[in-house]
Amino acid sequence: MIPYSRQSINEDDISAVTAVLRSDWLTQGPNVAAFEKALAECCGAKFAVAVPNGTAALYIAYKAAGLKEGDEIITSPNTFVATSNMALVCGAKPVFCDIRSDTRNIDETKIESLITKKTKAIVPVHFAGHPCEMNAIEKVAKKHGLLVIDDACHAIGAEYHGKKIGGQSDLSVFSFHPVKPITTGEGGAILTNNEKYYKRMIVLRTHGITKDPKKTETIGKWFYEMVELGFNNRITDIQCALGSSQLKRLQQFQAKREAVANYYFKALKHESRIILPVCLPAIKHSWHLFAIEVRDTAKRRAVFDHLQKNGIGAQVHYIPAHYQPYYKKLGYGRKRYPNAEHYYTGAISLPIYPDLSQADQDFVIEKLREALKM
Ligand SMILES: Cc1ncc(COP(=O)(O)O)c(C=O)c1O
Fold first, then answer.
1. Using a 6 Å cutoff on CB, does residue 79 contact ligand 1?
2. Does the pLDDT of residue 93 top 90, yes or no?
3. I want to staple 200 with a disulfide (CB 3.0 to 4.6 A). Which of 64, 91, 108, 351 is the partner?
4. Within this chain, do residues 197 and 267 fall inside the same structural domain, yes or no?
5. Would you state the torsion angle of the CA atoms of residues 176, 263, 77, 49, taken in this order, to the nearest 10 degrees?
6. Shortest-distance Cα residue to atom 10 of ligand 1
């Protein structure tokens, strides 16, 4: 099977991991801080907190931002459900905003009309790795005193107007699942320039526990205090060693993904039966996904099945969040987001990853053409 995305692991990655296995620290050791430092530097942020997955990262970011019962966030329905789920877990209400049909990102012109007294944050999702219109989003956030927490799970390495995604917003959330631009097996991180958020996230990552050096000195080295309710959201040194090694390869991964995207663009530019993704000027795409749309939406299922039947692990990103049974029960089923809904009816993600061979890519193109002719 040619998957829609997958990891690229080399001998350096393997050596980095095995070195940790031979060391004293499998978790809570020096590799976590080293990965966090490298991540922060890579994205131009002051602080990074590494956690076990992107979902935990969203939860911790929302908690650090003070998201609570009665609050609202504004986000995209064209995302993995974790983006809105974690707001619900915090007791807050996700308010969906329709997407642009070109980038499939949140439509920045529609955000302001959804702001209420309860709105606490705007949560743009850089779908597929194409940055959202951050200038407009930041402007509206500033005007209304809102936070910007970007779900950058697809977008490490992406840039908006020359600035790295992850270094600009109040909080930025990443995922390092093996399909993502870099991997730690499972993994995630939150980046911020705000020390207050950083300190709170460190506490939230470890059961809501703090260790005040003054108190440990007077009371004893064993002493700690649990100051808020939290989970064990620690990531291991094994994962972080892999992450640091992968981060060194990010530029190369990004260039390879871009080369795959360009090859599709060249081969499929005259294929009128599909809509290709866009890459607007002044951005750098991380190409986590290469999502096309079948114009004749009635044929999407047949095209998808034909690819799958031929061993091509095409996927669909995403079933709009408000279509999910859980969201329907909450009343979201009655809401309409025409662009997200229409995009979903034709969407197919084609394979894109650094080690995708030209022969495999040619095979995908051939099978796609075959399917479109059916
Ligand atoms: C946009 C988006 N947000 C959040 C997540 C959750 O990340 P994780 O799978 O690492 O928990 C994902 C994962 O697919 C995602 O694509």
1. yes
2. yes
3. 64
4. no
5. 20
6. 54
With a 6 A CB cut-off, is 85 part of the ligand 1 pocket? no
Per-residue pLDDT band for 335 (boundaries 50, 70, 90) equals confident
Residues 210 and 283 in one domain: no
Q: What CATH number does residue 336 fall under? A: 3.90.1150.10
Choose the final residue of a domain: 226, 248, 270. 248
Q: Are residues 227 and 195 in the same domain?
A: yes
Nearest alpha carbon to residue 188 among 246, 234, 245 = 234
Residue owning tokens 């039947």: 309
Q: Whose CA is nearest to atom 7 of ligand 1?
A: 54
DSSP letters for 91-140: T-EEEE-PBPTTT-SB-GGGSGGG--TTEEEEE-B-GGGPPP-HHHHHHH
β-strand pairing of 171-175 with 312-313: unpaired
In this structure, the answer to whether residues 285 and 340 fall within a common structural domain is: yes
Query: What pLDDT score was predicted for residue 304?
Result: 98
Taking CA atoms, 320 is separated from 94, 139, 333, 342, in Å, by 13, 26, 10, 10
Whether residue 111 is found in the same domain as residue 202? yes
Paired residues of 206 in beta bridges: 232
Report residue 191 CA to chain centroid gap: 12
Asked if 122 and 185 sit in the same domain, the reply is yes
Range of the domain at 264: 250-373
Residues 288, 168 share a domain: no
Best residue for ligand 1 mutational test, from 51, 55, 149 (most atoms within 8 Å of Cβ): 55
Query: Residue 351 has what DSSP assignment?
Result: P
Q: What is the pTM of this model?
A: 0.98
Query: Across residues 244-267, what is the average pLDDT?
Result: 98
pLDDT at 19 over 90: yes
Domain boundary among 248, 265, 280: 248
